[in-house]
Every structure is written in structure tokens, then in C-alpha cells.
Amino acid sequence: MAIKAYTYFVMMIKLKLHLLFCFLLPGLFAVAQIDTTPVFKGAVKASRQKTYSNIVKNSIIKNLSLPLTDSTEENWEDAFYAMELINYKQLWVNEKIKMAFDSAEKRSTGFQRALMELAYTNYTAEFKPNINKLFLVTKNAKVLAMCAEYLLRSDKSLKNIDKIGSVILKRRIEDFDNQESASLIQYELLWPIMQLAEKESYKVKLSPGKLLNTEFLKGNVVLYSIQRKNRNYPGIIIVKDTNGNFITTAPNKIFSLTQLARSITNMPGYLTNGNTPQGIFRMYGFAVSKSAAIGPTENIQLTMPFETSVQHFLKDSTIVDSVWTPELYERLLPDALKKYHPLFGTYYASAIGRTEIIAHGTTVDPAYYKGQTFYPYTPTQGCLCTKEIWSDINGKRIISDQQKLADAVKKAGGADGYLIVFEIDDQQKPVSIDEILPYLKIKQ
């Protein structure tokens, strides 16, 4: 009986262990296998189609079907932005735009700017006469600049450049309703024109090696977004740690990712919603955006000079100055580049009013830009954007250069330092890491 009791006891122990293995351990395993991949349901094929249809039917057709009055200006502005976003062009739309330009002079400044954004984004020279008319009478410096940039882009002859420049120079600051920023806008607008007249030997030229050396801003994590003058071609981003060493993925293999610094409008960086301006940004922290166009991948927070205090931007609590000046900003630049105007882009853009430029991923449908030189990358309202691909079946994130960038920044020491954007040249092709290596004195 004792043997039978013992045998029974052993069998019961084994049964309990079996039940534990069958029911408890799979549960523990399931917990360990929870999928944390970010999801964007808007990427599902049916949702993409619904979004596009909604933009066309409601944002564009419905809004432009309303008569243009003071009370419907915002509806038309929404339609303008929607057409920029999806690159929407139709003959009937052209007629609506002509109608808008016919009464542009008596419209609000917000409407004029929205109209000019659309014209600059979707049309090369179709509305040149209408825009020239607005250019000659507007009392808003930003509208003046947008008109001038359109006219200069449509006709690059020296005769036209001289004509546009003369009109701008004759306008007095007192003529504008936003006098505080008018002088800065005029300066940024006239700078490229003045450069044409300046002797080549007098020009301060970019020396990439002065920025890409180990001593520049040492003690900070530094991100370099290296771009072409033509922002239709993507640039690259590389990361330097607090010791001045560039992050690598293998021995002597520099970490780099493709990054687009082009806005939807492709306007100059000093204008709101223009391309990412050149110059230095203060980098401070990560965040997750609530914007459906940016998505759930962590972004890198950036500020320009006039968005924050002198002390925070320069990382120096002993500074007593509270008012920004170019001399304060240039403290961050190498001596050889303190007079290199393009690197003051963030300074002047923020002084004029630009804000909220960050480095982020994207959930925008790349199909909107198929055929563009930057496809499958998606333009923004002026931020720095990396490629992300989301499943059209379940919305899961498949590819994320943005997450790779965030991880590289953490490896370098965290998001506390600087990001600098500069244009290396005007070659008509994407920037490659091989072009940058000679400045880093590294062989791959």
C-alpha cells in the first residue's frame, strides 16, 4: 500500500507539472512576444483611397464650389493647401485660381499668402502677369517676397533680376503693414541679387571641413544634414558624438541616412512653409507627434534662435543678453564661416517668424509624389524628413529610417546638442556619403 501511495503521489506531481507547462508557460511566452511595432491605420490601402477621395471631394471640389467672399476665404485656403499636398492639377482648377487672382488685391493677407503658396508649388509661370500685378501693389512684405521669388524663378535673365531688384529697393519699410519683419525679409530677398554683383574674390565660401571636423561644437551631440541647393534631390544626415567622433555601423563605416529637406512648396527657407533653412538648430529632446502626417515614430525636437532664449540656444547660463543679435548667433560658427550668410538661415527665418521645424518620419502617402526626383521620400511644411514605409495591409511600420536616426542620436549621447543644415553644392543628384568622406578624412 505504501508503494502504491508513493506511486500515486509521484504521478500527481508529474500531472501538475504537465498542466503547469501546458497552461502557464505558454501564457508567459505570449506576454514576452507582444508586438510593439508602431501602427498607422491610415496606411491601410482602403484608408489611403478613402483619404484621397475625401481630399478631392470635400477639401478641393466642395470648397472651390463656394463663391469667393470674405466669409469663404478660409474654405478656398483649405482647398489650396489640399491641392499642394496631393499635387492636384485640373483645367477647371486653373479657372478658379484665375478668379482668385482677379480679386487678390482686396483679399486678406492670409488669403494672398495661401494663393501665392499654391501658385509657387503647382505652377511654374502660368500666373506670371497676375502675380506681377500683386507684386507691385501689396503692402505685406511676405506677400511681396513670395511674388518676387515666383517672378525670379520664372525668368532668370539679368534684365528681370535687375527689374525685380529695383522695385524692391524702391519700397520703403513704412510702406508695409508688418514693418518689424519687413526689413529682414527685404534683406533675405535681396541677398542673392546682391551676390550676383559682388566680385567672386570677395565672397565668403563654404568650407565643409570647418564644420565636419572633430572640434566643431565638441562636447555636444551634433547632427549634420547635408543637402543640395536644389532640394528636389535628397540629402543625407550623419551624427557626431560628444567626443567629436562620428557614429559608425562598423569599423570605418560612417552611419548615414537619406534625409529630405524639401518642403511641399519648395519656396526659400526664410519664408513660412518654405524649405528647411540652412544654419544651426538647437536640438533638445525627443517627442511623439499627434499629427497624422508625421506619425508615431519618435521625432527629434529642434528650435531656431528666436524660438528660444539666448542662454538655452548657446547652452550658456552666464550670458546676460536677452535680445538676439547676429553676433551672438555667430559664436557657434567657426571663424572662417562667421560671415558666410547661408549659415544664418535659421537666424533670419526665425526672426521673420518661422517656427516648429523638427526632424521626423512620415505617414504621408508617397504615391502623391510618384515621378518626382525625391520619390519615395515625402516633402513637409519645412521639416527634415526621413523615409518610413507602412504596411498597406495592417498599417504596421515596415521600414523606419527615423527610428534608426533616433537610435543613433541616443548612441551618440542623446538629443541635447545641435543640428546643422548646409548645402554642399548644386549638383543635380542626391547627396551620397562618399562625397562627404574626404572631409571626414575616413576611408570606407
SSE blueprint and pairings:
Elements: H1 2-32, H2 45-64, H3 73-86, H4 91-102, H5 109-122, H6 128-137, H7 141-154, H8 158-170, H9 179-197, H10 208-211, E1 221-228, E2 235-240, E3 248-250, E4 253-254, E5 257-259, E6 279-287, E7 299-303, H11 310-314, H12 326-329, H13 345-352, E8 359-360, E9 384-385, E10 388-390, E11 397-400, H14 401-412, E12 416-425, H15 433-440
Parallel strand pairs: 1-12, 8-9
Antiparallel strand pairs: 1-2, 2-5, 3-4, 6-7, 6-12, 10-11
pLDDT < 50 stretches: 1-10, 19-25
Distance between the termini: 79 Å
For the biggest β-sheet, the strand order reads 5-2-1-12-6-7
Radius of gyration, taken over Cα atoms and rounded to an integer in Å: 27 Å
Find the structural class using helix and strand composition.
Answer: alpha+beta
Which percent range describes the beta-strand content? 5-15%
Oligomeric category: single chain
Text of the CATH class of the largest domain: Mainly Beta
- Count the helices. How many? 15
Mean pLDDT figure: 92
Largest sheet, in brief, is: 6 strands, mixed
